[in-house]
Amino acid sequence: MTTPIGGHCDPNFAAVREAFADNFAERGEVGAAVCVIVDGQTVVDLAGGWADEAARRPWQLDTLVDFYSVGKAFVAMLALQLVDSGLIGLDDPIASVWPEFGTAGKEAATLRHALCHRAGVPAIREQLTNDDLWNWDRMTGALAATEAWWEPGTRHAYHTNTYGHLVGEVVRRCTGELPGDRLRRLAASLDADVWCGIPASEQRRCADVLWAPAREIGTADFGRLSGDPLMVALGYFNPPGYSSRDVVNTPAWRGAQVPSTNGHGSASGVARIYSALLDRGRLLSPDLLAEATSAQSVGWCPVLGEETTFGLGFKPTVPHRPFGPNPGSFGHFGTGGAVGFADPAAGVAFGYVMNHVIPRWQSTRNRALIEAVYGSL
Predict the structure, then answer these.
(1) CA 305, CA 180: separation in Å to the nearest integer?
(2) Of 30, 225, 269, 332, which sits with the fewest C-beta atoms within 10 Å of its C-beta?
């Protein structure tokens, strides 16, 4: 079957279109979109393949798909804007705006700790259900009651799913708005098609997420685990659907606010946000953006199983997982290969989203697209 590809591509970036087509022909892509903005001008905005496994719905430029951890940078950006506004400081205790959080060893946990995965709560200890997952207050209440897994600030571990509730509740306590609602207002002002909590009227645009292999997300027997292995398992599977297992393509998941994991958007929406971050002072003050995109915590991560560098919500480019060749680039990958990033040196903002989820973050697909972009500059 011929793969449909639509959108536009500047002739100078024809290599990106070729790499995009090759992803379908040679690398197993099912449905995807890629957008590249250079110095504020959109030079690539392509969509191709299928939004469903049966190959009945062509992927459109306005197709929305779950981009997983790409959304961590966006909820972090909302919190960083509060720092710029003076509503909270990076080194203020989280409990200064969320008093219930200041218990069980978390009294000294700061916003900085939360943003760079050092807050000590990558998993909720109380056993939860998927009914709890749809309830913001229930999730944040259970997180606030959780005993810290380590003294905040003394180590890091990727807060795979709790990150969105942790940072998002700081946003809510400071502003009165749920993070998804605040993100939507910001995204709309940028004409960026990005959501966390999609209304029913927009869910018809969602692509189905397809796992490869189909049972890539497994299960865990919590009763047989302790220490870090228990922490990692609970972080992924408490509640059972926290990582999207068995719920990802449901209206409940798409409509909920799980900001670490269930942000949805188009490739152009992701790229537009990163392009706005390159517009000096537009979304974040230059000094704060520089701090947020520099290394804040470096070391072994038991969740990711590797040496990891975290910024404040954004991940700085690193040799083994680069955002292009330039050292000042920053962004965030998502499960299966979705990615958004900005490169100040080249003036590049990049968004790539897809529905065929393959293991880990960096893939032959996103690497091919990024290499083609830089080969075209």
Answers:
(1) 30
(2) 225
How far from the centroid of its chain's Cα atoms is residue 51's Cα?
20
Contact 171, 78 (CB under 8 A): yes
Q: For residue 139, count other CB atoms closer than 10 A to its CB.
A: 25
- The string of pLDDT tens digits covering residues 263-296 is 999 999 999 999 999 999 999 999 999 999 999 9
pLDDT in tens, 330-362: 999 999 999 999 999 999 999 999 999 987 777
Share of the chain above pLDDT 90, in %: 93
Locate 274 and state its tokens.
């990163």
Q: Does pLDDT of 224 surpass 70?
A: yes
Q: How far is CA 153 from CA 126, 279, 299, in A?
A: 23, 32, 13
Q: Are 270 and 195 contacting, i.e. CB atoms less than 8 angstroms apart?
A: no
What's phi and psi for 34, nearest 5 deg? Answer: -140, 140
In this prediction, residue 24 has a pLDDT band, given cuts at 50, 70 and 90, of: very high
Q: What is the 3-state secondary structure (H, E, C) of the chain?
A: CCCCEEEEECHHHHHHHHHHHHHHHHCCCCEEEEEEEECCEEEEEEEEEECCCCCCCECCCCCEEECCCHHHHHHHHHHHHHHHHCCCCCCCEHHHCCHHHCCCCCCCCEHHHHHCCCCCCCCCCCCCCHHHHCCHHHHHHHHHHCCCCCCCCCCCCCCCCHHHHHHHHHHHHHHCCCHHHHHHHHHHHCCCCEECCCCHHHHHHECCCEECCCCCCCCCCHHHCCHHHHHHHHHHHCCCCCCCCCCCCCHHHHHCCCCCCCCEECHHHHHHHHHHHHCCCCCCCHHHHHHHCCCCEEEEECCCCEEEEECCCCEECECCECCCCCCCCEEEECHHHCEEEEECCCCEEEEEEECEECCCCCCHHHHHHHHHHHHHC
Average confidence score pLDDT of the chain: 96
Under a CB-based contact definition with an 8 Å cutoff, are residues 151 and 105 in contact? Answer: yes
pTM score of the predicted model: 0.97
Q: Are strands 210-211 and 356-357 parallel, antiparallel or unpaired?
A: parallel
* CA atoms of 318 and 220, how far apart (whole Å): 31
Cα 292 from Cα 314, distance rounded (Å):
7
